[in-house]
Fold this sequence. Notes:
The complex is a heterodimer. Chain A is mainly α. Chain A has one domain. Chain A is 74% helix and 0% strand. Chain A has 11 helices and no strands. Chain A has helices spanning 16-28, 31-36, 39-51, 56-84, 88-93, 99-129, 133-158, 164-179, 196-201, 203-215, 222-249. In chain A, α10 (203-215) packs antiparallel against α11. Chain A is globular and about 55 Å long. Helices cover 35% and strands 26% of the residues of chain B. Chain B folds into 2 domains: 6-228, P-loop containing nucleotide triphosphate hydrolases (Rossmann fold, 3-Layer(aba) Sandwich), CATH 3.40.50.300; 233-290, Alpha-Beta Plaits (2-Layer Sandwich). By secondary structure, chain B is of the alpha/beta class. The radius of gyration of chain B is 22 Å and the shape is globular. The relative contact order of chain B is 0.13. In chain B, α4 crosses α5 (144-156) and α8 (225-231) crosses α11 (293-307). Chain B has 11 helices and 14 strands. In chain B, the strands form 3 sheets. In chain B, strands 6-7-8-3-9-10 form a 6-stranded mixed sheet, sandwiched between helices. In chain B, strands 2-1-4-5 form a 4-stranded antiparallel sheet. A 4-stranded antiparallel sheet of chain B has the order 12-13-11-14, with helices on one face. In chain B, a hairpin with a 7-residue loop joins β1 (6-15) and β2.
Amino acid sequence: MRTEASGATVTPFRGLTAFLWTEVLVQAHENLAMATSMVVQGVLLVFVWILDPALIGVALLGAILFSMFAMGQRVLNESAYIRIDHKANDLYLAGPLSPEAYFFGISAGILLVYLTPVAILGVLAAVVIHPSLAVTALLVVLAATVWLFAASIGYVFSTFFRDNRAIWAYASLFFNIFGVLPPVFYPFDKFPEALRPVALLMPPSAAAALVQHAIGATALSGGQVALAVGGLAVEAVTVFLFAIYWARRTVQGV
Amino acid sequence: MTGEALRSDRLRKVYTTKGSPPVEALAGVSMEVHRGERVALLGRNGAGKTTFLRIASTLLRPTSGSIEVFGFDVAKTPERARPFIAVVPQEGKPFFHLTPREQVYTYLRARGLPRETAKARTEESLERMGLLDFADRLAITLSGGQRQRTMVATVIATEAPLLFLDEPSIGMDPFARRDVWESLRNLTRRGSTILLTTHYLDEAEALSDRLYIIERGEVLVSGTSDDLKRSVGGTLKVSLPGGAAAVERFRSFGSCVADGEHLTVIVAPERLSEIMDLAVRSRLTATVGPVTLEEAFLRVVGRSIDED
């Protein structure tokens, strides 16, 4: 019998690289979407530039973190679309590709393609604020953590919808409320004091506060740093692990 | 890999939705598909075919009963069964922003095939499905039939031991359908097993070694297409234009269906001369032809509906 040399079972993350590459190919055919992914960030940067040019460095860092967070919305849209419209989950998951590889492949494929515009923001930020190596490393770690959280929550949310039209409103609402409203594009200390703990528990604003603190644009207390770091780590890891569990669980229906 | 390609025992599936009464999609389906067989699952819309296929292909949990693929319990250890299966989902579409060549190749790679094998099988499958002329066009620019061919090409290229195809040739032209049939025959010659659903009964007849008819979540009939035809009283049909008024005279020969003034009678070959005599004596013109699977299907399922 001429069959593939498949192993005896589907192991975790089996097929990840190949499926990730599939998603990269799919996304890479949409050049315009890559450009338009920067529209919200671009508009907000222009607003900040007009209102207070001194804050453009903070806003650029915020734009990077927001871009990573907004990838969650793309994961949500893409995974819902290919499940509802294309039945791609049936095609891929009724086979040796692991559910984890399916979820993470979509997420990482989108990340790889949409990193290009983020890298441009990174270059602009480097020109404006001249970050140290430590700040750069911190920014990379924070951006990765925000992405992990957003991609995981985006994938989990995508499984709850049966109709793409219903997704548009909710996805945009969720990602704009958590990504634009809190202090991501502006300094953390301009946010109402009573609401700051809430902002520190939201991954994009927690990451923004930490990086602003690192470049001296805002001053966080030890407790605030701990809350932001702890919250971010716990939320990202918890949501990621849940997404893995959920990816496995939902192969055979919710 | 041991056991039958597929075996289900009293498989039940009840869908429950808040605010709606439960719907029993499968009411205890037992069936076997032997290795190397091509088996068709037939039934009306909503009969339970797709539900069965989704459970068998590890995409849905059964409510009760058991189902095994090559000896692996599909409900309890789906990860053991998955390496051996591939599925053409109902109404599935290829990625619109991939070309058929990219779609087939990347799918094979995601299933773990080595590069060279994946490349060779991609080309072979595209050729078999008549897709070489469109192989480098984005799927979004292809017609519905070409997209469906891409889906089938993607799955047959796996040469998986067990393939599930849910209405694989839907939307295809007659030439493309015959390409699919030939590809599927070729796959079973190489050792794969195929379970498909279809509403094209000529396809079921041309392609399947055996078939199961499902009605309201239960197996109504199983066997070869000839078995099914015999089960309706014969393998020949006698058409009698203007014979509807004389239906009572012909009832003893077998199943009679009156359509306006036209009467069709299903008869066993050994009673053909007898019914022809009666037609002549009744001054009716009679034409004889073989019973098609579609006619047998309509009678079997129709009889079941009438009994209910």
